């Protein structure tokens, strides 16, 4: 029998202001990775959003991740057809690389008969990605708090109130995480550390208890956004315009350049003012109004005869 597995993985927005490399929120915007065993060869096909930015060579992240599983298990399919159907703007701060890694790991794991537990998949994925926030949210869904302790990810998932909406304003340029990390200082003073720990803790408590009116203060940050703002023309204007239009708060989405505004009403108006504010700073942008994905990544396996 030949196997075909399809993993559907949600996008994520991370940091949410102060929770740098820790907090992540899964969004109802998806990428699927389908792996089919074939008689011979390797074919990698990419459809959908930003397909020109996703390699179809063997350095494709989903393919590399799938191969990692096959090598760990000691099983080498005769041939592989890997198809990505991407709905997530690439290199914009929406966790696209994490969805590719998870998609490859989960679908290969399913083809091999699920030798690895979800916790092991999480550890493998985070080791490849280098930080746990996007991967954990995409795998588990909801709002996740993730910490790496001795190479193991310790994660807790919270379910935000169902009426929470996230308006993501996505400017039409890419900003790699590597580039956005290079502008960060290597040290943080004690006052700033306390500032971020206090906001991040308040944010988790506010989401856990549904006190979304706390989000404005709870998403304040001194660790990364002040340094990254210079890479994102109009960062302050876009955040302020969203809040003036009724958003509870706004913050960089991951490493940027997208900006996420959080709201329970006025989402269309918030989307429009964010696009306008980017335009006033010389950038074209699109906006997506998204719900929180509470299910996380899913995978299905289909077996067919090898004849
Ligand atoms: N926490 C990461 C960062 C997310 O801000 O650099 C980027 O993928």
What class, by secondary structure content? alpha+beta
CATH class membership of the largest domain: Alpha Beta
Number of domains: 2
CATH topology of the largest domain: Ribosomal Protein S5, domain 2
Short description:
35% of the residues lie in helices and 29% in strands.
Features:
single chain, 307 residues, alpha+beta, Ribosomal Protein S5, domain 2, Alpha-Beta Plaits, seven-stranded mixed beta sheet, four-stranded antiparallel beta sheet, 35% helix, globular, binds L-homoserine
Mind explaining what this structure looks like?
It is a single chain. This protein has 2 domains: 2-159 and 293-304, Ribosomal Protein S5, domain 2; 165-291, GHMP kinase, C-terminal domain (Alpha-Beta Plaits, 2-Layer Sandwich), CATH 3.30.70. Helix 1 (61-73) runs parallel beside helix 2 and helix 2 packs across helix 4 (133-140). Strands 1, 2, 3, 4, 5, 6 and 11 form a 7-stranded mixed β-sheet that branches. A 4-stranded antiparallel β-sheet has the order 8-9-7-10. Helices cover 35% and strands 29% of the residues. The radius of gyration is 19 Å and the shape is globular. The protein has helices spanning 61-73, 96-111, 118-129, 133-140, 177-182, 190-209, 215-218, 225-228, 235-244, 267-280; strands at 2-14, 23-38, 41-48, 79-86, 143-149, 152-158, 165-171, 249-252, 259-263, 285-291, 298-304. By secondary structure, it is of the alpha+beta class. The chain contains 10 helices and 11 strands. Bound molecules: L-homoserine. L-homoserine is lined by residues 14-15, 20-21, 131, 133-134, 177, 180-181, 224, 254-255.
